[in-house]
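Worked example 4.2. Below are the chains of a multi-component assembly; read each line carefully before continuing.
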Amino acid sequence: MPQLRTALAQINPTVGAIEHNADLVVTMTRHAADRYAHLVVFPGAALTGHPLDDLSEQQTFVDAAERAAGSLAARLDAEGLGSIAVVVGHLSPDPNSADPNRADPNRADPDSTAANRAGAGRRSLAVLYGGRVVVQQMAHRAPADHFSIARLHGADVALALGEDVWPDSNCAVSVYRESAPGVLVVLDSQPYRRAHTDQPLERAQHRARQAGTSLVEVNLVGGQDAVVHDGASLVVGADGSLLGRAPQFSDGCLIVDLDLPVGTASVPERFAPADEEVGTHIVRRTLLSEPALPSYPGEPGSVSPALNPTAATYTALVTGLRDYARKNGFESVVLGLSGGLDSAVVAAVAIDALGADKVHGISMPSTYSSEHSRTDAAAMAEATGLNYREVPIAAMVGPFIESLGLTGLAEENVQARVRGIVLMGISNQEGHLVLATGNKSEVAVGYSTIYGDTVGGYAPLVDVPKTHVAEIARWRNAAAVEGGDRPPIPSSSIEKAPSAELRPGQQDADSLPDYALLDALLEARLERGLSGAELVAEGFPAPTVQEVLRMMRVAEWKRQQYAIGPQISEHGFVRDRRMPVTNGWRERM
Amino acid sequence: MPQLRTALAQINPTVGAIEHNADLVVTMTRHAADRYAHLVVFPGAALTGHPLDDLSEQQTFVDAAERAAGSLAARLDAEGLGSIAVVVGHLSPDPNSADPNRADPNRADPDSTAANRAGAGRRSLAVLYGGRVVVQQMAHRAPADHFSIARLHGADVALALGEDVWPDSNCAVSVYRESAPGVLVVLDSQPYRRAHTDQPLERAQHRARQAGTSLVEVNLVGGQDAVVHDGASLVVGADGSLLGRAPQFSDGCLIVDLDLPVGTASVPERFAPADEEVGTHIVRRTLLSEPALPSYPGEPGSVSPALNPTAATYTALVTGLRDYARKNGFESVVLGLSGGLDSAVVAAVAIDALGADKVHGISMPSTYSSEHSRTDAAAMAEATGLNYREVPIAAMVGPFIESLGLTGLAEENVQARVRGIVLMGISNQEGHLVLATGNKSEVAVGYSTIYGDTVGGYAPLVDVPKTHVAEIARWRNAAAVEGGDRPPIPSSSIEKAPSAELRPGQQDADSLPDYALLDALLEARLERGLSGAELVAEGFPAPTVQEVLRMMRVAEWKRQQYAIGPQISEHGFVRDRRMPVTNGWRERM
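Applying the procedure described above to all two chains together yields the following structure tokens:
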């Protein structure tokens, strides 16, 4: 029975940095070679990073990505790694990009942007072997696009990109079921989603049973703007048994020995691909090597546990921030440390991402700041060792109020905006990335001062509702205690009633529904898409529904100017949402 | 020979405001009835507004739009307008929205957002007649979707949405050529594009000749966030002759008498649609009325001239701002009036959009402001009558510099950010919309202070390069002189060297290439998509190309936080662009 030592190379590429990403592939392949792997599988988009957005339309980029697969094959061979089959996700020129819609500059229908985005490049995969690209396969769009099976050491390895495997109909799984390969290898680029804790495994088990083969799924890891990939690459047997799983949010190489059935289909001459029809699809077979290797003692794969949703969300925030900073050349961050919950959690995330010595927390008390705000901020600094300073803002706020005669909300907002200037000034002077500390609940209903507390290049909590922020804080403190460390977040920051402290005695509850109610309503609206009437039918008070929907509509212009941050929910609040600002729609309820 | 008095009802709906938009339809139909029209054609998306973006996925909105067509038909009939055939663009539930991709919450391929966006609603058109919806037709996506021909007073009227007519292949024109209707009526929702001055007419003439019929094309007018529709609805004879054209950027009703061939195809019983196959397509015929009306003396249609590109761009800016303000409930605007070109042009646009008494220009001199800056700003106020005040910022800047010890760029940025706070403070206190005055050249290369001069809810010049801003200013002044008015923009604001005045003697030319060079390079890059190597081959100096591409990459995070404003160029800088912020791609040149 053929054996294949398979390495799941869970890497963290940077969008656009093709040469850097190729270096990662070489390093990880060398690592796999040291452990005698025969097959090394990288994630989808490993060479280009993901998501590419408009970069996939730039012809020079597409060409560079395509060329990179060839030069990488040559380089691996030159470094003595040519006898290992290396599977990588990359980008190829799309033969169908001469789309008639693209040719007509006058076309302005609602789908034209999407049509353009389908653009010049199409996601693809390649098998690099013996110094050459021996298999090329594009993301499947039309019957003419082929699926590939490579015979390696006597076993049939079927190849697919993630998007070819997950749709319910017309997918690679049904095609490969007919072709009976030994293993189905999937190059994936799935982002983390809080709601999906158990789904990737269940889905893989379902697919393995459907295809009747074992399944190797390798996923990206790491942050890229609003997306965080969580890795958790896995191997599942044909019977659905979990044979190996890589850790979440951590790059590395998982080795699994596969025992595979002998490939019995007739194969063409070595490296000369031959096509066969399977239903309306084309399967292309390529012979890399035959027969099976002499039998060797296999090692069992390791199975990392899946993190619980709170731990996973926190780790996604840490990963997102760490990679945003690192990939954009920032060594340190600065944020306003108000003593409140949001800024404390963002500081904790930043400390875990970059180290306390790289985090600068600025307390900016105004005349309305409570004593406990200052002591809570200072306590966090003391507990964690982050860089802490106090910049009282009264002397900066005064001249605006006096010059302009501001009162009420206008006066409140000046305080927040002065803080924004202070943070940006320190950033400009010292080179730190500014973190915006607003949470999803605030962003959704616009409970923030634009150009004030919204200031920043990255917003860790933009997709985390307030109630989850509190949950995360409690979990992080508990994890510290469990590990014998001091809890980073002052418990009074978690337990006290939220307040913006922009006027005497102000509390969030004066302007907003209770956060438990607000967050439940936002979840029902944004994640489940309930209408106003459906929300009321679920038991939300009609006046609250009406007011929250109004606030969301009015806040849309602010949300569109908000910093990017990691998407956590299914229907994220950064990349995925495109609502009109000018919007006369009013739901009846 | 059948005659049809046809009204081209060029209206300005608001996205989402279905009832308001229905009111516009009734008002305009009544107006057309007063002029004895038999057929009233409204634009695509007349009932819903355009573009809808994610609103088209909200089931309650789609259902409301669908219902609105029926109630509008009943209302028109109740108001005695039921004997006029009214064609409106709206939105219908998409029978294919049960997309398997939508059912799988784990799917995260690059196209999933677009797939979701294809969502619950599909653009459609309806003919309202005799109190009923007698014809319904969806935007064409599959062979099963039908095209419609209505027999009205003995003539065959073929119907299409804009997106069904403009693609080069597989379009309604080829289907209708076979069916030989008397006239092809197109409901369009084309945005204004500077480069398209002559194209809409040429394209319509081409289509009319292709279809072998006369062509009535009705377009939306007005601003909606980043989109400005320019109207210019038109009627072209089967021979390509221009029979009528509505003015650009102005709502209204153009009446054209059409002499049409007698419809000879056999038609079914009244209001009972019958399908026939034309090639692989389906044409659905519906009889509304027969035979032809008694002959009457027709009136020639009026032909409004097309504006030149500079006049059209300026008018697009005025339209965009006027509608953004009006549709969002703002009566007045505030902006920083620096004495420079950009703010002067934005002020002129605002005055033309809202009236000088609704425009508040704030001069905010610093210690580095030149004397001519203050006198130029004051001169503009004097020439136009806008509300003008001076708020010196030295007293507000000082405390930041002193508290934080800021120097260099950090000190420069504080000045811009203090101005931002002043404008937002006045806005909060007095209720004006804040206008950001940055131009496209600045936004592209990030020559701006984020949260400073970028502050604002609407940015009229975001898609207008600096050299075009100067051209617009000269044109506006010349137009004033021609009309016997005082030129609004001080000529020294146009002619002096651009400067941010954030340090002594600073000029834009110290940090940026000459604007003529920069704008040519940006145009080649953004509109024509040239690579770095292609830019150098076109004669742009390699170091300049490299530096500008670097600046654009580094500015991307700021651009994404910038206010929306009207798209003028083909590949706009607001809606259309989706570049990664974290981006390791470096072009070789």
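Take a moment to check your reading of the output against the notes. Chain B has a mean pLDDT of 92. Residues 310-509 of chain B form a domain with the Rossmann fold fold (CATH 3.40.50.620).
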